[in-house]
Amino acid sequence: MNIRKKSKLKKADKKYDSPYKQMFSNLTILKQLLIYFVNQDFIHDLDFDTFETINKSFTSKKYKDTESDLIVKFKLKNSDEEMYFYILLEFQSSVDKFMSVRILNYITSLYISMIETSKKKGETYKSLPPVFPIMLYNGNETWTSKENISELIENNDLLGDYGINFKYFKIAENEFSKETLESIRNIVSTLFLFESKQKVLDIELLRNEIKNLFKNEKDNIALSLLTNYFKNILTGDKMDNRYDLLNIIYSNENEASSMFADLVNQERIKLKEEGKIEGEFIGIQKGKIETISSIVQNMYKKGFKLDNISEIVNISINELKKILKIN
């Protein structure tokens, strides 16, 4: 089950937007999503080294508290041709019957923006680049909305070639079985396990998946984004990258999994006592949480450059030098 209650999202629930969007703006995490959960043939034609995020958003003001969008582009291998991905991050619990209409509107708005931008630069598109639409849904309800807009238009086939035919690619987290996610074993599958609709989260399973991540995943920034998202959901803290859980990245995997499992357990028990969630939860022994100063020193000893440490923990290089007592 998802930790947050999702009957109706309030404005405060917008906190899920930034961490989620930051996670999938990371190349490692996005690449895992595309390869393992989209897995269309053209994904293997992408040159992932050309990854670029587009600083635009086309979501409606009406849905600003229940969704966010991410736009990225890649060049194709051995080519200057580009391919865009429009990813709608959907947080509302209820299913929108006309989601395909909304996403089509967002895609056409993106195309219009491209055309207007090219005109301002004195350029002209010979043809528009392909945009692959993805809807990532993390609600509890079963997604029943038709992905193809043609199925929502009565007698659309009577129009022949003039009918509207548009389809988005659906990724509904609650449709993946525990066994499927266990077999994938990456950051995205661990995230989906964490947001499982099961009544009781399998702490031991999650502990093992996290242990595997910290043993095999080399992208520390991607790992920090994942743990920051977990902490943000469990404690409601603001996303600022200065969180004690960073130290699990630089500890051994046993300590890492114990620490995270303990955090999950404590926060879930707290929510249960407050009447926000139901179920019995497994007690986990407390793990050690180091201070930011200790984290920084540990990172420095392991050979991390100051600018990388600064980016991860959101502390200026001058402040880092003071902590490390170096010039």
Question: Could you describe the 3D structure shown?
Answer:
The protein is an alpha/beta fold. It has a domain of 175 residues. Helix content is 41%, strand content 12%. It contains 11 helices and 5 strands. Strands 1-2-3-4-5 form a 5-stranded mixed sheet. Helix 6 packs antiparallel against helix 8. It is globular and about 75 Å long.
* Average pLDDT for all residues: 76
Radius of gyration: 22 Å
How do the helices and strands follow one another from N- to C-terminus? HHEEEHEEHHHHHHHH
Residue share in β-strands: 5-15%
Give the helix tally. Answer: 11
**What gross morphology would you assign?**
globular
Give the N-terminus to C-terminus distance in angstroms. Answer: 49 Å
Number of strands: 5
Q: How many strands, what sense, and barrel or not for the largest sheet?
A: 5 strands, mixed
- Low-pLDDT residue intervals, each spanning 5 or more residues: 1-16, 238-252, 274-291
The helix content, as a percent range, equals 40-55%
Strand order within the widest beta sheet: 1-2-3-4-5
Give the class from helix and strand content and strand pairing: alpha/beta
